[in-house]
Amino acid sequence: QVQLVESGGGLVQAGGSLRLACTASGTTFATSAGGWYRQAPGKERELVARIFPGGGTNYADSVKGRFTISTDYDKNTVYLQMNSLRPEDTAVYSCNARNVWRDVWGQGTQVTVSS
To answer: What is the SS3 assignment for the chain?
Structure first.
């Protein structure tokens, strides 16, 4: 069974930091692109950051310089380090693992940034 389990969401004040983790079972980030997406109330889901096997990354313009995505291949986990958080970062953050064979999503974790 392929599964992604996210952790690390919560409530933080503006300017604070959180680290999200996404651990995969039944698939591996060594052969899948790992991505973090978010969806705020009343808005469409958007890509936040993505990391490819080999280490290439891309980020949404709104998070460049504040967020960092990384992979621990030994733990089969993708992290999203979020610094200098803003109220507009408030959303449900979901993890994704994608390759030519499958497209898997986690259940999502809430991130709330208070002003």
So the answer is: CCEEEEECCEEEECCCCEEEEEEEECCCCCCCEEEEEEECCCCCCEEEEEECCCCCEEECHHHCCCEEEEEECCCCEEEEEECCCCHHHCEEEEEEEECCCCEEECCCEEEEEEC
